[in-house]
């Protein structure tokens, strides 16, 4: 993409093709011979990382679409079937879902890098604007993808975001109806979002081609911010940039794999494991972390239209950056003031992200408004002003001079920025975490679970006992509709044989039909059948339970959580603590009190529970000592029942957890080996360049 | 050649490059496996393909029914004496896909023919009781099968396959 190439293949067949379609020459001049500044640091590898992420998302997305059903009644279930039944479906889903977060993580670093080193300045304005377009497309794609699992956050996220357009004067309502294809978010909305979610990544890929084209016309910017002049300033893209990018990608994959195999739900909202319910809004609507700063700006402004305009304006203003910042010096390295204000701006963005996850009340609103003003002031006041008053330090004459000047001690800024980034990411996540903490109820005590940690396995005995507790107690009110009898005989579960699972199934009566006479009939359960639900529908369940709907327990340990608070949530990322759900379920089962504390007004037909949010629960105390007898001599106590049934329900929520952690270990051994090898290879290759 | 060059004696550098490339190649190959494996039938599909039982009592002599197993139509024909005779009269060696009628039914249950009703040519469903041999006739490309489901005429290369099945009792079979 940098003009005609002198590349000539030697193979006569390739020569024949090359004369008619010079594609090999194009590839050679773009990715082999292409001169790349020799002083690029590792922040520049995020371009390659982003290309990889786009490829990964498209590949896994196309595969997931083979198994996904875009229908309001079936979408949630089809996602669960992917995770439970499709070969490696859990892996593909984790790659795709964490992949979205990784994609945004990488794009934010890429954008801040561009901001810091002035990569938007002449002659790279179009390159930068194309990047802003890609970012906008990514946001639309990510949002619509988040809607597809059709959980509670999907549904209500879709409702809130589409309602943004209702702020448009005169046409607002019509636009929103047009987006929905109905009177509310529903099946037509889901269908079109699926279609567009499939389309937009290919549009992104197209704009990426333009982005790379524009990059190769203008040439890469670099930390010194001076253009490459002589051959001494550059190295050929291959092998130098290629190997450096590969090493960067490999390091990034280590980070990514940590989420895929060990913390797949760390960035997700437990609320999204509850199927979409148009009648109940979750207590805290929080977008995915990558939208939080803009969400904070939206909420800071007390006027509907102005809030929406400000939110979109916060993104659109980026496109005008090349003209807002007139400074001749590109790199902030040589701009003492711009450098400091850059970090202030990063802090403002992170602060906004933190506030976006907080409840919109009290001090949060005030700080949110201050940070919103600072956000816009950076672009609209500070940068234009700085370009007039700032005295930049002298820039090096050439890239080669820059390389020579800093032959010692250059790693420090990189390390400190990585640490700063980690803390920033932690703060953002902490915001989400503390939003959950505000929901009321005591914090459940953290228990020791056999399945926690990187080598965790389900305690077979506990899963078997838990199944007994579920069958004899819980199943009278709660369904387990995503678990089939055949699952009982699968690896990583309670460890029953196929015959035992079949015998267990045959104890159940399952409705089947119609038969040849057109009638429904009951027959003994088969391994392929799912646990029958105790009530035929939600209305029947409510009628039998004083108006409350006993939730299906298939995903309960993933659908419940509680805030861990600072700094535990940060430590959790490294210790892989992710048992908030099981801790909560076990605590609720044991948290009943005969008498509510003095002054607590318990409604009629409710019971007091220490750990249930709000403390007033409709479920009567389900377990009491001696209720279930275990064959293996385990104590018949509520504590034992609670622990066992929670272990069983954790397995029911994620039957392939053991496979996930096992494969994770293999992948980590491999990736560490690859990263070490790439590091030394990179060193060897670059030894030639110095 | 007097001086040692890297082409003659692999250096440490060459070893590093080859090792890195090999490890990366192994990783790429291993990554492909889940991406391909996901195309295979998922666990619920496999579980739904469990054996089924069919009650034969409602099928009168000369009649046949079609049941579905693993998404495939299975013809169960209650053959008449005449149909059985026709199937056994023909010299086996003269058939395109030589198989005796006895080997295609269960001993003692000669009147019951159980075959997968999918034409071995290109997968259409042949119509029962049609064609020159009183067996099956495929309307797509004109393959003709006899009363034992053996190919007699047309482009199909082989007989209609017999699915795995057993007689649970005289009037009930289990397919699969």
From TrEMBL, chain A:
Heme c binds at residues 474, 477-478, 619. SUPFAM superfamilies: a domain/subunit of cytochrome bc1 complex (Ubiquinol-cytochrome c reductase), Cytochrome c, Transmembrane di-heme cytochromes. InterPro entries: Cyt_b/b6_C, Cyt_b/b6_C_sf, Cyt_b/b6_N, Cyt_c-like_dom, Cyt_c-like_dom_sf, Cyt_c1, Cytb/b6-like_sf, Cytochrome_b_C_euk/bac. Residues 13-224 form the Cytochrome b/b6 N-terminal region profile domain. It is a multi-pass membrane protein. Pfam families: Cytochrom_B_C (PF00032), Cytochrom_C1 (PF02167), Cytochrome_B (PF00033). Binds 1 heme c group covalently per subunit. Belongs to the cytochrome b family. One of its GO terms (biological process) is respiratory electron transport chain. Its main location: membrane. Keywords: Electron transport, Heme, Iron, Membrane, Metal-binding, Respiratory chain, Transmembrane, Transmembrane helix, Transport. This is Cytochrome b. The main subunits of complex b-c1 are: cytochrome b, cytochrome c1 and the Rieske protein. Component of the ubiquinol-cytochrome c reductase complex (complex III or cytochrome b-c1 complex), which is a respiratory chain that generates an electrochemical potential coupled to ATP synthesis. GO terms for cellular component: membrane. Residues 461-593 form the Cytochrome c domain. GO terms for molecular function: heme binding; metal ion binding; oxidoreductase activity; quinol-cytochrome-c reductase activity. The chain crosses the membrane at residues 42-69, 90-111, 126-148, 160-183, 195-215, 246-263, 305-324, 336-357, 363-386, 663-681. CDD domains: cytochrome_b_C, Cytochrome_b_N. It is found in: Membrane. Residues 227-397 form the Cytochrome b/b6 C-terminal region profile domain. It comes from the Bacteria.
Automatic annotation (TrEMBL), chain B:
Binds 1 [2Fe-2S] cluster per subunit. One of its GO terms (cellular component) is plasma membrane. InterPro entries: Rieske_2Fe-2S, Rieske_2Fe-2S_sf, Rieske_Fe-S_prot, Rieske_Fe-S_prot_C, TAT_signal, TAT_signal_bac_arc, Ubiq_cytC_Rdtase_Fe-S_su_TAT, Ubiquinol_cyt_c_Rdtase_Fe-S-su. Belongs to the Rieske iron-sulfur protein family. Coiled coil: none annotated. Its cofactor is [2Fe-2S] cluster. It is a single-pass membrane protein. The keyword rRNA processing does not apply. The chain crosses the membrane at residues 15-36. This is Ubiquinol-cytochrome c reductase iron-sulfur subunit. The Rieske protein is a high potential 2Fe-2S protein. Residues 81-174 form the Rieske domain. Component of the ubiquinol-cytochrome c reductase complex (complex III or cytochrome b-c1 complex), which is a respiratory chain that generates an electrochemical potential coupled to ATP synthesis. It is found in: Cell membrane. Its EC number is 7.1.1.8. Signal peptide: none annotated. Keywords: 2Fe-2S, Cell membrane, Disulfide bond, Electron transport, Iron, Iron-sulfur, Membrane, Metal-binding, Translocase, Transmembrane, Transmembrane helix, Transport. It holds the Pfam family UCR_Fe-S_N. One of its GO terms (molecular function) is metal ion binding. The main subunits of complex b-c1 are: cytochrome b, cytochrome c1 and the Rieske protein. The keyword Transmembrane applies. It catalyses: a quinol + 2 Fe(III)-[cytochrome c](out) = a quinone + 2 Fe(II)-[cytochrome c](out) + 2 H(+)(out).
